[in-house]
Structure formats: structure tokens, C-alpha cells
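Q: I have 527 residues here and want to know how they pack in 3D. Can you give me a structure?
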Amino acid sequence: MTDNTIERHDCDVMIAGAGPVGQVLALLLAQQGLNVSIVERWAQPYPLPRAVAIAHDVLRVLRQLDLGEELTPLLEPWGHEGQHFSFADSSGETLAESGYPLESDSGFPLMSGFSQPDLEQLLEGRVQAEPLIEQYRGFSLEELSADESGVTATVLPHTGAALVHNGRPRTVRAAFAVGCDGANSTVRSLLGLEMTDLGFDRDWLVVDVLPHTPPTWLPYACQRLGPARPTTLVPAGPGRRRWEFMIMPTDSQDDIDTDDNAWQLLKPWEIHPGNAELVRHALYTFRARWADQWRSGRVVLAGDAAHQMPPFLGQGFNSGIRDAANLAWRLALLVNGKGKESLLDDYVTERRAQVSQIVEATVAVGGLICMTDPEQTAQRDAQLRSAGAQGTQHVLTDWTLSGGTLRDDQIGGKLGLQATVSTPTGSALLDDVVPPPGFVLLGRDSDPAELLSPAQRATWHRLRGRSVHFGPGGLTDAEGKYAQWFDRLNTSVVLIRPDFQVFGGVPDPGATGELVDQLAGHALALD
């Protein structure tokens, strides 16, 4: 599979879908020198809000895309003034609170609110300016076939709503293809891939609002629990708020998704046309499912094409961007003829296992939130009061990877720490000192690359790896966080992948060569 020099392709990777997952994947691939084609039936990015929360590790991925200072104004760190997310009963009494720390292992706030249309426009500008990316906007994927040397896609002109009458088909030939084309994925359908469904189907009305002035009378973020009508309120980026109202059996199906109904539901919150703009309302069925198979030969799935989850933990968008980061470096190795075919299987192993954990955790939370039986809700409220009496809890947003391209040493699969380090020229975050993408050996006290044999150095060079260390001639642990991190992991050297995930670590620097050899065994094709 790794010999892509026999045949000339139109591109290295064809991506179906120009949502944020497809955009980010395309930019990550171009960053590694790959030619990318994107097929998208809509002529412009979707203009209305969808996702509203970015996790710290995903912000770290976005930050490497040279978005510069344009990204920062789009973000509002959750809890930036010490606010909490509260759980309240139907009368408004606070039962428990959870917090969102402003620090994380990525060096950013744990979670930040954002406006997806603004982010997509920023990403779209970068995609259009990137000479290695060609977009087929206004085209839909109609046929997809793969063989031993590549993938062939047939695309037809599309208005976004329907095929163009008598539209002229085009053919795109790629080494690999990725389906980032959403919950109703054409790629997944064409491949005939089935899904595991947890059977959690709930209808909710999502309402996005832009208040004219800061609504200081509102909770910062809260979950108003049933039995009356479970309702969620969250910050949705600078100046924006989102409500999610659970649809009840007594609701009129004809009137649910209307402006009048949206304003009526907002009325108890003292939000009305005189003090806010109604940005949009949309009826959603929250689902919990993932594809059984994410790969068929040279074609793989990512984002909502591979998994969907309710929004209760804010992890749907984030999981899709994690897919892109996990996949990009693997495709780069494969296209360049260096990677093992099993890299794509490892991608599926790692991402499917993590996503299934997140979906199951989200469903567990959703089961509590969507509860409407009076006796059950009373028992739940009592449990939450008891938990709330123990103080503010922190929200879980980190799930360790397992299996796949990882060393089985209790270190592999964790997120690599990013904190402030000092160099002779000043202080900066680690990713600014060692800019991604690339494999990195990080040593606690000395340069780990100096301990590699000549053969291991050649392997490390083939991987385009770099090494940095703390101590004489290296970095200074400006805040002492790396010393604590190495202590916590009981290690002296860690090997970090291009997606910022730790491949593995060793307590004895003399075993650094084993790390490199084991990574090569997982990732590199034989010469």
C-alpha cells in the first residue's frame, strides 16, 4: 500500500466534506507537504451556529495551523471570571456545581466557547490561500471505488440542495480518501458501513441568541432539570448564548421549530425581541452511535461520519478534530512511502475506543438530564444535592488513548504536556519552541538523541524526529510543571507524536533507543 510512485494521482488525499473536520484535516496534511482535494456540495461554509465548545487539546491543534491572532477573538474561555456550570431543579434551586479550570495540560483553558461559523470562515480563508489544497465546492460525491494503488471518486455539480441538471461529472484520483461528510455520510453509505447505536434518541430544540447587552441576570451556564422541561444554557462564544430545550410529548409538532415558539421558551429567562437577536433555532434528534468499521482499504471515516453523540459534554466537534489530528501524520507517512499499512488500522483502534467511551459517558449524563418521571427526578435531585454538598466538581474532558500506535507502558496514550519554557531568547510555550508537526523526544535532564545508536539515529531521521531537553544546553522548566509531569509519569524521556499524544516513555534515558525502535516497529514500513 505504501508504494504510491507507480501511478500519478490527482492528489494525495481526497476529503469528502468541507466542515471544520475536513478543513482542519486538509490544512494539517498540507502542512506536511501533501496535495489535497476537498469535495463539498455547498458553495460556502454553513452560516449558522452548530458546535459551541472547544476543548483545550483541540485548541492546541487549531493553534498550529497559523491562524494567528485571528483565532483568539473568537474564543471565550468557560469560567474565565470564576463562573461555574450549575445543575438546578425545576424550581431553579441549585443542586450542584461543576467548574472549568483555566489551566490544562495543553496550556489553555479546559474549555472555551466559540461561534462555529466564524471559525469555519477563518479556516476557509486558510484553505483557499493554501496552494496544496484544491476545492471542489459545488460538487457532490456520487461514486467511490478503491484498488491497490488508489481511490477514484466521481463528483457531480451540485447546488447544495440538488444535483445540477445535466451537470458534467469529474473524476478525482487520490492515493487515499477520507469521509468527513457528516452524520448522513455519503462515503459511509457508499462503503456500506454499519453503525452501533446505543438507542439514545431525544428531540431537542436548539436556540442561539445574541443578547444586545450582557444578560447579567442569567446564570453563566446551567442545566435546568425536569420533570417539567429539561433545559440547557451555555455560553456560545463571545457575547452569545445557547439554549437547548427538550421536546415534550405535549408539544405541538407543527409549532416547535418556529420563531414564536423559540421566543415563548425564552420568555421565562427574560430574553425577548427587545433585548436580544434570535440567531437561529433548529430541531435536533440527539443520537449516540459510532461506525462499526471506520476503514475500507484506502478510505477512512472521520468526524460525524464516524460517530455522533449528544451535546451534553460538548465533545462532538472536539472528537472530530481529534480524529483529524490522529489521522494526518499517519497519512503523511503512508503517502511518502514510509508508513506501514497498519497505521490506518491503529487510527481506527485508538479513535473508536476513545469515542465509544465518550459517547457512553455522554449518554450516562444525558440519561440524568432527560429524566422526566417525578419519582426518578426526585431521587436524582437528592443525589445531586448530596454531591453538591461536597463542593464544586471539575468536568472530565480528557480520555486516554489505548491500543494502536502506542507503547503499552502506562504512559503511552496520554496527552503530551505543554507549558511555558525558557530559552536563551525568552519564554514561550513548548509548541512555539518545537513547532509541530513532528515526532519529538523530550528529555528531563539531557538530550535523548545523543543516546541513540547510528542505526537508531537513521530511523529517527527517517521519521523526521527532533529532540529537546531540560538542563544544561537545553530548555529551562520556567514554571516547574515539567518536573512535576516527569515525576507523575515516573519517566525521564518521553516520545511525543505529531498529534501531541505520548507514544511512550522510559525512566532510564539509556533506554531511549528502545522507544525509537518500538515506534519504528509500529509505524515504518520495511525498506
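Q: Anything worth noting?
A: Confidence is low (pLDDT under 50) at residues 1-5. The CA atoms of residues 17 and 336 lie 24 Å apart.
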